[in-house]
Amino acid sequence: MVDIEKANQQAVEQMMEARPVVVGVAPAIDVIPGMHRDLLLHAGPPVTWDRMAGPMKGAMVGALIWEGRAKNWDEAEALLSSGKIKFEPCHEHSAVGPMAGVISPSMMVYIVENKTHGNKAYSGLNEGRGKVLRMGAYSEDVLARLTWMNEVLGPVSNAALEAMGGLDLRTLLGKALHMGDDGHNRLDAASILYTTQLAPWIVKVAKDSNTASEVIRFLGENALSILNQVMAGCKTMTDAAHGIEGSTIVTVMARNGTDFGIRVSGLGDRWFTGPAGKVKALYFPGFTEKDANPDIGDSTITETAGIGGFAMAAAPAIVTFISGTPQDAVNTTLDMYEITYAEHKYFTIPYLNFRGTPTGIDIRKVIEKNILPRVNTGVAHKDPGVGQVGAGVVTPPQNIFEDALVAFAEQYGF
Amino acid sequence: MAAIKVEIRSGVYYDSAVLMQLQRSLASLPGIEDAGVVMGTESNKELLAHIDLTTPEVEKAQPNDLVIVVRGVDEKAATEALGKVDELLTRKKGGAEQAYRPRSIEGANDMLPEASWVLVSVAGRYAAGVAREAMRLGKHVFLFSDNVSVEEEIALKQEAAEKGLLVMGPDCGTALIGGFGLGFANKVRRGNIGVVAAAGTGLQHVTSRIHQLGGGITHGIGTGGRDLSEKVGAVTFRQGIELLSRDPETKVIVLVSKPPSPKVAEEVLKLARRAGKPVVVNFIARPLSLPQMDNLYFARGLDHAAELAVELSRNLPALETDADLGLERFAAGQKYLRGLFSGGTLAYEAQHILASYLPKVYANAPINKELKLPNSYVSQEHCIVDLGEDEFTQGRLHPMMDNELRIRRLMEEAADPSVAVILLDVVIGYGSHPDPASELGPAVAKAKALAKEAGRYLEVIAVVCGTDEDPQKLEAQVQQMKEGGAWVSTSNEEAMRYAGRLVRALSQEAGGEFTMKPVDLTTLQRPLAAINVGLESFAENLAAQGAPVIHVDWRPPAGGNERLMSILERMKQRQ
Asked: Would you say the ipTM is above 0.85?
């Protein structure tokens, strides 16, 4: 009989001991396993074109236009719906992407390496807030920004990261949690830490001071500069915990705007999916709940790794998203201890007496206690081409944890 | 006529989430159609224009300016809304002090690891699961819930016994731990009396009476009504007795219950005898055989139990122990008692008193027909022979007048290597032998010498019945019996009790060994801290008493889904 406790102990241990370091930036086609010219990666579990959410369609169309594979929506749609261009989940290629999470072959991606176990993960460059490709916007200015990111931001960042010998994400995140970040929706401190650590090297490697200024300014102004690196870092942590025989620890939570999917360490690469939920959100001026797309993005990898919504007690300011009080943030974290297996060794929360963040979602506990993981997230407009309309909180559908538990019982003979 | 009003604030910083919150608050004010609260960046200004929230003033805003813009149904509504901005920004959210409510005992334990107790009052079908969870974390359980099956109770208590934990209940209404009342409990003074009670109101009444009488309580341990049934076997009751016997603060123990199963009662009393402190027993409606036996004091009712306990706690009696009995004088194999009586009623009372000490005492004139001696001339095991019965007096004088038959039997018994104690009565007065002890005393000496020669010790216990004005003189009779080496008393009860204790100790049938893992006494001595699952008022009551308590926001496991619950249960059991 399999020893669940031992398996889970090993899983969380490996998750926490993983030490992700951002080592460079390179085109997706060159580094992402299985990437090819006719493939797009996207957030969440697998989805078909006809069921695909608006913002993801928009991002795919935008990516194909930007890649020069299509001139307009119709051409792009023809390629995608015919199967000429394939699309697969980022998670099936050691990658993660926020919101629509679309990665096309030519896009520059961060390379994050787990120095403890040697595995790597990849994620694109963050575009900032508002009207962006990851939210389904693909207007000319959006695509122009992508080009600049690919031609300037990416290469300069790569040179800087190589020159500095890589940037340790675990240390940086641990610090940011003490500066009011949750590691997912609020990355203000982490983004600044990232920018200040990188800036001296950017100045050294950039071809001129204008370029250096431009890059530093872009990174410094974007409170989500580090979101993608953090997500890839979290992916290396949860991947390190994946595939352990008999473990009930969740190693992937991801949404594609249509479905919410999870994977469990001891249940291989099988997805357990259910309908993506409606986000309880505050909206940007002019938008309402009616405009919102259901929950979308791979960013829930942060919660899976023990930060984000799970570390909300470290980021009390974030609760205003849901018109709550700082106590609500504390309570959210305390609730998450109920469904997690461990308390993080390296990510701690000052307000809770430096208690480790709740780490390693255990499907048994989720079901037994009837408490779903809490996710903080941005909200995309349901139509392609519009972009972000708000931010708020959401939970996964209950059934995916139930299905996973039943599958686990079947596989291991309980 | 719709009106747009704008306020620009420079040099201020608000978190974007605060701005969104303000915007939502403004938009929800009466007479406001839409509102925007943003920093004055180009893209934000574009956005405001897009939704018809712009003015020339907005156009001029700089990226570091905070732009607050509202569109009201009229000028007045818009102006009023802007007037509320500061109020909205500084509005204190209510309930910030509200404490966190964990969702499981596990979560509560993280917050209050020093809690030794979990109070469980959830619906019966979930109660055992919650109790098990509590025990898994090493907590004692106060199980208020009813509708828990007896099978579940047995399983829970077995687990508790193995772990050295208490499961008080199910259907346990009340308990007092270190001065704190759990469940339904009265405010009772702390003192030196400990109570173990099956019944809720039994505990409440006895402890309240003790308080009224000026006494006080160390701990009041509830067990639930079924604990003293044969099936459950008084697990908690016995744990309670054993625990209180070790508690140095507890000087007197009170046991209260409805009538238990006779077998269980016997076990419980055996254990109570070993408590090493006075134990007041009130098993309601159970017939009393004796008011007192060793350290056990039998009360007639709840009030009497309280009175006895308070009195004993103020004047602690010196307790006899088996160590005083000189058991080492006896040889191996000596274990039986033989009573050779001349008086029928004395013999009868002897049986009655000895029944409290010894499982079986045979007699030629038995109280209980099953214990009839098959042959009155041949002793077996423990037995009481009334030599004044007709079978012995046909053609012979009554033994009160003629000692010959008794002396012959005395010698027979003294020669029996299994005999340890012989009982004699010496009845004087008009009509009796003119000086019975002048014959019986030397006979006792001879009997004892006989035993001594054989390497044994024989205890002869004599009860002398008469007065100092009788012709034979009481004192003279006592004196002669003592000279013969007898242990003499003029009280039949005292003599029989001594005999009972002695033989019980020799026959090693004392029983009452406590075989469960002992409950850690320090968990009762520490200031009470608890986790409450179920009725919130129990947590409130404990908090009002000043005890740290965490109330769990409990829901049925797996949302009550039976299939998932059974999978989880199997996973737990096979670990």
From this structure: no
